[in-house]
Amino acid sequence: MAEKLKIIALGGLNEIGKNMTVYEYGGHMIVVDAGIGFPDDEMYGVDMVIPDLTYLVKNKEKIRGIFLTHGHEDHIGAVPYVLREINVPIYATRLTAGLVRLKLEEHRLKADIRTVEAGQTIQTGCFKVEFIHVNHSIADSVALAIRTPVGLVIQTGDFKIDTTPIDGDVIDLTRFGELGKRGVLALLSDSTNVEKPGYSLSERKVGESLDGLFKDCQKRIIVTTFASNVHRLQQVINCAAKYGRKVGVTGRSMENVLKLSIELGYMDVPEGTLMDLTRMKGMPKSKQVIITTGSQGEAMSALYRMAFSGHRQVEITNEDRVIISASAIPGNEKTVSRVVNELYCKGAEVIYSEYPEIHASGHACQEEHKLMLSLIKPKFFVPVHGEQRHLQTHARVAAEMGINPKNIIISDIGRVIEFSSKSAKLTGTVPSGKVLVDGTGVGDVGSVVLRDRKHLAQDGMIVVVVSMSSEDGSLISGPDIVSRGFVYVKEADDLMSGMKAVVTDAIDGCAARNISDWATIKSTVKSRLSDYLYRKTKRNPMILPVIMEI
Amino acid sequence: MAEKLKIIALGGLNEIGKNMTVYEYGGHMIVVDAGIGFPDDEMYGVDMVIPDLTYLVKNKEKIRGIFLTHGHEDHIGAVPYVLREINVPIYATRLTAGLVRLKLEEHRLKADIRTVEAGQTIQTGCFKVEFIHVNHSIADSVALAIRTPVGLVIQTGDFKIDTTPIDGDVIDLTRFGELGKRGVLALLSDSTNVEKPGYSLSERKVGESLDGLFKDCQKRIIVTTFASNVHRLQQVINCAAKYGRKVGVTGRSMENVLKLSIELGYMDVPEGTLMDLTRMKGMPKSKQVIITTGSQGEAMSALYRMAFSGHRQVEITNEDRVIISASAIPGNEKTVSRVVNELYCKGAEVIYSEYPEIHASGHACQEEHKLMLSLIKPKFFVPVHGEQRHLQTHARVAAEMGINPKNIIISDIGRVIEFSSKSAKLTGTVPSGKVLVDGTGVGDVGSVVLRDRKHLAQDGMIVVVVSMSSEDGSLISGPDIVSRGFVYVKEADDLMSGMKAVVTDAIDGCAARNISDWATIKSTVKSRLSDYLYRKTKRNPMILPVIMEI
Predict the structure, then answer these.
(1) Which residues of chain B lie closer than 8 angstroms to A477, CB-CB?
(2) Which helix (H) or strand (E) holds A394?
(3) Using CB atoms and an 8 Å cut-off, which of residues 353-372 of chain B contact chain A?
(4) Low-confidence ranges of chain B (pLDDT < 50)
(5) Which of A154, A409, A456, B285 is 20 to 30 Å from the Cα of A337, by its Cα?
């Protein structure tokens, strides 16, 4: 039986973020992207989510390299965690490589990073990987055309079609068309914005809106966007230069990315345009621009601190025009709104998502997907990077474009798709899932800990401590009751003494029935107290009985 | 000095929800609306938020009545809590009155509810309150024109302008125009959708979309919307009747509201259209419609249970078309998305907010506000019902419409606006704020409890128990360490024994320095353990040292 190509997503299917795809053929394996996801609402206290790396670790001898499509966190954020487990070369374009290096410095890790340009092809093991230029909301993004022994597979990475991009470099549609003509076995394509009809907005249109907001403006202009959106930053700087303003930068990630992209030549900043914030103080407001982090209203970001009067150098007044050149990522709507409201309260004029063409998404809309499908004409189609709603919508679009519905495969993380040159099917599964990162801990917060955190968050907790004799089980001291997050204790005397009475009564009851086993006593205390509190308050705090044996 | 009219918002300014406005003149007071707000993300475990009622309770002798504009929770939800404190008549239109009665039954409260019709005027104390019909996403909504000794004040309540409403009853623009001609001292107007340009969609357009989704459909149709959206429900029932389908209803609030609106004559359901869900089981799918709760993806709502296979009567298959005829309230985007994804996974076709004209908002957009301002031509303008961004945008729109900017007042909850027949100004403040309702507790969860819940949610907690001799302070037993929500204890042996060592060492250190004061020992244990854990894990669990005195 001939060897099959296996494609396995370890992240990015049925979810937004933590993108990671494995290509496997015989003894050869490559990994495309290694991203993080953001914790959802129920993941209390979790900093980020990474893919389960079990399958990679198990096959570490096979892995020839990690190929990165672009420098966003959901595609490169997990690189340090992968490198701790396996040592393989990383292939990436220059900007992506630079961003990975920044990240590895923070983690004090070294790696073999190999810089590739769009148009180049890397051969490793039985795979030949061609980098193809695409447009996206970060510079230097690529799709990958992966030549395998059973045929050519294209993975788009995140992309859009921008016919007037800032760097003049339109997505390489010709190359996709050439490959399509020669025959593409399978296409794995970004589904993020497939629900949106029509075409995405060109980045250049945002520049026109920005220009309108700079022209004749007498106020200081404060702009926030995603730090990695190099082309947006370039347009802000262009406007500043055009209207004779100096630009100060605040927020660590913004400073880092700007420095890096200037060094690498991805940004062109006219001499003397950038200025240290502290030096701008005395200047007329109409000559100032501040570029800041905080487009998602993140607590403690520079814009957040400005809004809540906690920024050391910037005080917001009615002489400020604040431009939030970004849309809120689902789940961040309220935090962004809170910052907008505070800025308004301080007298600022605030321009945000309700303003026309103030932000352009980096993801293709429905008509762009149709164009790509018509060029690539894949035999098999696998929608990726999206929740179920996006994957199914993308499948429907592909079917409308003439892809045989039987050849459209909606997979899931950990599921194996096996390809021959003629067939594709879902076969087995490999370990996959969400590994939670909390502080320095990777994977030590799981469902039990999260369930407890949720319980504690909802109704708080009560600790009941008694000390009992190890000889005859008699009560020596207590019950002492400590509560947190339940009620304001200073105004709940009755409830506190009621609790003590219930606990004492429960322990006496056990003694009367000659129950001396600690576990039974604890569970009796817990259930009696729980009933009492639910009756009194309709709440269910966590109850922790502790018995000290003396 | 002549008496002034005071208008004081106790809720609904700088926030969405918990609307409540007080009108006070001399010894007379009326209250407009008594709504709840939804807890924000930081209010762990809180069920709802109501206005601080201190000012009402303090002035209970003055209050002549509560006037309700319509039956949504953010306008009537706090009525039971007000009635527990003060006993006054409630004035409302029939449907609103019916919904309040349902609510009071749940709370086992009785009240003096007086039914009023649009067009009627109620005189009470020195106020004459005229009810004026408006369009909104619930039937029987009114604005109030309040004649006071210093002049006429109009409070719009929530409204939109719908020239083709389902009940044929267009907002009474003529009456607003007549009052405008005679002279309106002040207008308090809904700001919810003022950021949106243009006009809101007519409810009838949603009916046309629904019709398109019913026509030729062979699947079972499941529709969810806000239970109180009587006209939307009417349109679903009309479609069902037109295409020969039976309608089953699931979800308690949906059943209650439907029953009430049929009883009161707000809905017209053709004989035999409604059917018990259990009786529909054997029928062809193409003959079934199910109306369900869960348009916000609420956990345990009927639609949620269907999606997660927890509904006893409804199993979702590929023979279902699910229509979510609602938009997600900010903050609910992710929960709605989760339900949509699950429905897709079960094979259903899902129609939601991305589908054109599948939902119409109940709030006026910018052009409608301009129309109202042009009719009413108030001397003073007070934007209400909105966050700061909405209030300021509404202020800007009013200024564009020719209202003197000096006469536009952006107030805040608890702030007093004093009106004479010629002037208006912000003067003092009265007690106001958010009172949190958790279970049966009203106001017993405050900032201390919330801070603890947040801390517990983020990093969990650790209880350290020791028993010490009351005579010489020597350690008798322990330390015992219990943790919850911190790490998975079974896989953290090293950390647990490390913690014990640190605690023992801290206590020994105190003994060596002859420290016998419990408070000092506790704080030493806490800080030593906290340092240790942060170094090991970069986390800050709550640490609770308990010393039992033996």
Answers:
(1) 467, 548-550
(2) helix A388-400
(3) 354
(4) none
(5) A456
